[in-house]
Specification:
3 domains, signal, five-stranded parallel β-sheet, 17 helices, WD40-like Beta Propeller Repeat, Neuraminidase, Metal_Hydrolase, globular, TIM Barrel, alpha+beta
């Protein structure tokens, strides 16, 4: 690629730290040849030494390797499906390790010759972080089998397991004392503790404020050794003394031999004696598969498949959301009943079928509206200062249960509102029994504090006693999604229906929801969005509305709605002072852009008259945000979200995970022109494993269920598939083999060898609790960069810590577009963080993240800009990400390419450019973004498919929305609203996607 003089000067003139880091990261990438890559460094690798001191075992790219203690070529012991990490050498050449092969972490042993593989633990609980006792008769480990992560000991002769610590602690990584009588471990990243074999405990170290502790071990004189982690600094400690500082020390147990210590840091195995440090070199060769780019298919017309949240009245009328409006389906005819100007969603019929309650943001914030189905008259039901979503009528029609923007559940009538739960993390839609004394919904219940994943269970609220109770739908199983997949009470109050493993189940219950029998499977096809009609179930199956009796007789309900793209705007000529085509190194001045049929036809010198004169503006390709989740807070954001993306010049977004029917409905509405917003390419729920966290992850436990999910993806025209954190490698590989859709995940390897197309984030949520792609300081090493560049796997940085730039400039937070188009509570939080200077973000970690992305980019890898909005702020985060890239090494042109050409290449579409034949997706900005990246956010107008939008027009609906001044009284909360469980928190409480 030819470089401009400015880019050459910028690259060669970077600070010494960047030059050093970039060269270190790219060193060894030339070792990639053919279908293999030679790795000479490892990111977040751990090391164990054989008792005779002759051999080392390491975990590198999720496999166990052995090499001579003096260094050399490593030999691989485990295969990709084993997903093996954290080796521990024992006597006789045995190595214990943890493996995720079957969808839970379990302990295994193998000989250093690769023979004698044996599984030691099994079951639905996790067993992690093994450590051989000095005499080789026992293995210490941690497990959540007792309600939190406790220290356990396995006797290898008897297979008996003894628990030494338990609830409420969350222990990690025990290591033995030299005499085998005590174990040292970390509790909750804040302390170093010791437990003896009789259960006596002692606290040795407490972390300083703002610091975390990892990798405890016994050092010389039985002093505690551990890694102390602060933003920008990691130290290997012995007692209170920093033995190693100034290195990126990985958080694993160091191995001491007198005053000599073996540890891992800076991508290397190191041995330190006194003040002298020596690296132990290694080489490991792994196979890779070059990515073959897919082409995303643009949908032009067809039957409506985006039927969101259907419900059925007593007379059989069905209400649902489609094409950005609410519809009633009766006698085979669908009738639109709202105008689609705002976001109207989640209808529910009154018990007598004469009224409809639903949520609408026509007042600026989602509120409950009551519609008389005979007269068409509408009125607010029980207004509140916050959002009101997913309403359900009580059986007598006198009350409505709903969920607010913090995940709190309320019961309301026109006289008052009463909170009945604490803030819950993305709860499902409420449901009522016949007597109206209970409200039930889906809610997540984690297995432990240490790892956030759990199962989506039935949470019942007794409205009389105020008691909260969790019930598993099936042992160790989750309700499919915490949205419209249940629980749903039958009209007679005698059954609950829910979806588990992608099919519907029905269970007999009493008035409080306690099971009185065993759940029974009702459907055998992909089942979503359950609703009752008498004793039958109505549901969605891959875009079809279906009805099933409880004995499995299924029929299709015809909806009869179609959609098509609107006619393109008339031909026009836009005159601009300058433009960037998406490739050039400098702007071209004073041109006319000729647009016909929504496509750029010609770019020519100015002549004659122009239809739109923007001579004071620079035209740049519309930006692409390649990682966001439109419906993670879609009901709370409402129709604002499309407007805010466009107002900041973002004309295409890609979602790697959303509630599927909300996603399909929005995608069709945007394509049909009934909703304002960018082009939307997306997938449904990410395919997850045995445990879940977000409400839109699909727990998938078998190959048969995976086949159902892939059929669902095909029939609903997914643009991609995302496999999530707890899906085993075997099912991840099967997904690649079964579909031609592009796939991404949170993992680099073996994704780079099984045909995956991309990795999301620099290194976010990971079942290990840490990443093999980026360290806790945000650094990546030769292994990671070599695998990205050799395979062509895309990386989407999602620079959460870019909010650290608020310390220099908070103009994006104070911008009128942000103030008007963000929901009030979102804006208040965003402004508070800006005013704090991004106090919750780390500039040091941000710098390392960007340098990692820069090394991949300049090594020839594919970096695509994405933000994880709304976990970060929609639209403004895109610009903060670009600014962070430029601050820490990218040129403005390079940064813009990650948000234009590169994601367009990933999608296989002619987007991200201004050239003849390309869609006319253009942002018209003030200034020169090739010199000042901030100019990219200075949007004056934006064109999407040839249609111009002014910022004023995009702001208008939420300037015009009538602001409420009077609210229904908030009554005394029920006792059940008190926070009693640590996992009860609103979804926005932290940037959770970057956790562990």
């Amino acid at each position: 690629m030819e470089l401009s003089r400015r880019e050459l000067l910028t690259r060669t003139g970077q600070a010494a730290a960047l030059a050093t880091t970039a060269s270190a990261l790219t060193a060894g990438t030339a070792g990639a040849s053919g279908d293999t890559v030679t790795l000479t460094q490892g990111t977040n690798i751990s090391v164990s030494r054989s008792p005779d001191g002759k051999w080392l075992a390491i975990d590198l790219v999720t496999a166990i390797w052995v090499l001579p203690a003096t260094g050399g070529r490593a030999r691989k012991l485990t295969d990709e499906l084993q997903d093996a990490t954290l080796p521990s050498f024992g006597p006789g050449g045995r190595i214990a390790f943890q493996s995720y092969r079957d969808g839970n972490y379990h302990l295994y042993v193998i000989g250093q010759d690769g023979r004698g593989l044996r599984q030691l633990t099994s079951g639905r609980y996790d067993h992690r972080e093994p450590a051989f006792s000095p005499d080789g008769t026992k293995i210490a480990f941690v497990s959540d089998r007792a309600g939190s992560y406790g220290v356990h000991v396995l006797d290898l002769a008897t297979n008996e397991i003894t628990q030494l610590t338990g609830t409420p602690d969350d222990a990690a990584a025990p290591q033995w004392s030299r005499d085998g009588k005590r174990l040292i471990y970390i509790t909750g990243t804040t302390s170093v503790d010791v437990v003896s074999m009789d259960g006596r405990r002692e606290r040795l170290v407490t972390a300083p404020s703002g610091a975390q502790l990892f990798g405890a071990a016994f050092g010389p004189g039985e002093q505690p050794s551990y890694t102390l982690v602060r933003p920008g600094q990691t130290d290997l400690m012995l007692g209170t003394t920093a033995v190693v500082t100034g290195e990126d020390v990985f958080g694993f147990a160091a191995l001491w031999d007198g005053d000599s210590v073996l540890y891992t840091a800076d991508g290397k195995i190191r041995r330190r004696t006194g003040q002298s440090t020596k690296d132990v070199p290694f080489e490991a060769t792994v196979p890779v598969k070059k990515v073959e780019r897919h082409r995303t298919r643009n949908l032009a017309a067809g039957p409506v498949k985006g039927i969101a949240s259907p419900v059925v009245s007593s007379d059989g009328t069905i209400a649902f959301r489609a094409l950005n409006a609410l519809y009633l389906l009766k006698n085979g005819k669908a009738t639109r009943i709202t105008d689609g100007r705002y976001f109207d969603s989640d209808p529910d019929f009154s018990p007598d079928g004469t009224k409809l309650v639903y949520a609408s943001d026509r007042t600026g914030v989602a509120q409950l509206w009551l519609r008389d189905l005979k007269t068409g008259e509408e009125k607010l039901y029980s207004p509140s200062p916050g959002a009101q979503t997913t309403p359900r009528f009580s059986p007598d029609g006198g009350k409505v249960a709903y969920v607010d923007h913090d995940g709190q559940v309320w019961v309301a009538d026109p006289a008052g509102r009463r909170q009945i739960t604490p803030a819950l993390f993305q709860p499902g839609r409420p449901t009522w029994p016949k007597d109206g004394n209970t409200v039930a919904l889906a809610a997540v219940k984690p297995f432990s504090r240490r790892f956030r994943e759990g199962t989506s269970q039935i949470l019942s609220v007794d409205l009389v006693s105020g008691e909260l109770r969790y019930t598993e739908p099936l042992p160790f199983r989750s309700i499919a999604t915490r949205g419209d997949d249940g629980p749903v009470w039958s009209p007679d109050g005698r059954h609950l229906a829910f979806v588990v493993e992608s099919v519907a189940w029905v269970v007999p219950v009493d008035a409080k929801g306690d099971f009185t029998g065993e759940p029974r499977q009702v459907t055998r096809e992909v089942t979503d969005s359950l609703a009752w009609h008498g004793n039958d179930l109505v549901y969605l199956n891959n875009g079809r509305l279906r009805r099933s009796t409880l004995d499995g007789k299924v029929s299709t309900i015809r909806v009869g709605l179609d959609w098509r793209r609107p006619k393109t705007p008339q031909a026009t000529v836009v005159r601009v002072g300058a433009y960037w085509d998406g490739e050039a190194h400098d702007l071209r001045r004073n041109v006319d852009i000729v647009v016909e049929n929504g496509v750029v036809q010609e770019i020519r010198p100015q002549r004659g008259r122009a239809g739109t004169d923007l001579s004071d503006s620079t035209a740049i390709p519309g930006l692409i945000d390649a990682h966001n989740h439109w419906h993670l807070r879609g009901r709370q954001w409402g129709a604002r979200q499309g407007n805010v993306w466009l107002a900041y010049g973002i004309t295409t977004v890609r979602s790697p995970g959303d509630p599927v029917y909300q996603m399909v409905e929005t995608r069709e509405a945007l394509a049909a022109g009934t909703l304002t917003g960018p082009r939307f390419y997306a997938t449904g729920e990410a395919i997850d494993g045995s445990r879940v966290y977000y409400n839109f992850m699909r727990p998938t436990l078998s190959r048969a269920q995976l086949d159902l999910e892939l059929r669902r993806a095909h029939e609903l025209d997914y643009d991609m598939i995302k496999t999530y954190v707890r899906l085993p490698v075997e099912l991840q590989r099967a997904a690649v083999q079964k579909t031609k859709l592009p796939l991404s995940s949170h993992y680099l390897y073996p994704a780079a060898n099984i045909g995956m197309d991309g990795m999301e984030h620099v290194g976010a949520t990971n079942r290990l609790g840490y990443s093999h792609t980026v360290t806790r300081q945000g650094k990546a090493y030769q292994d990671v960069v070599a695998l990205f560049t050799a395979s062509g796997l895309s990386m989407t940085p999602t620079l959460f810590h870019s909010r650290a730039l608020f310390a220099e400039d908070k103009s994006l937070a104070t911008d009128e577009r942000t103030r008007v188009l963000f929901p009030p509570w979102e804006y208040e939080r965003y402004l508070a963080e800006a005013n704090s200077g991004g106090a919750n973000s780390s500039a040091a970690i941000l710098k390392n993240w960007v340098e990692f992305a820069l090394a991949v980019h300049r090594g020839g890898g594919l970096v695509i800009c994405g933000t994880d909005a709304p976990l970060d702020a929609p639209a403004t985060a895109t610009h903060l990400n670009l600014r962070a890239m430029v601050k820490y090494g990218f040129t403005p042109r390079e940064a813009l390419i990650t948000a234009t050409r590169n994601p367009a290449r990933w999608l296989g579409l002619p987007l991200g450019a201004i050239r003849p034949g390309a869609p006319a997706d253009i942002a018209f900005v003030g200034g020169n973004p090739l010199r000042d990246i901030k100019a990219a956010a200075n949007v004056r107008q934006v064109m999407l498919g040839g249609r111009l939008h002014t910022v004023t027009d995009l702001l208008a609906p939420y300037r015009e929305a009538g602001e409420l001044t009077a609210y229904t009284a908030a009554l005394e909360p029920l006792p059940s609203a008190e926070k009693r469980h640590w996992w009860h928190e609103p979804e926005w409480a932290c940037h959770v996607c970057e956790d562990h």
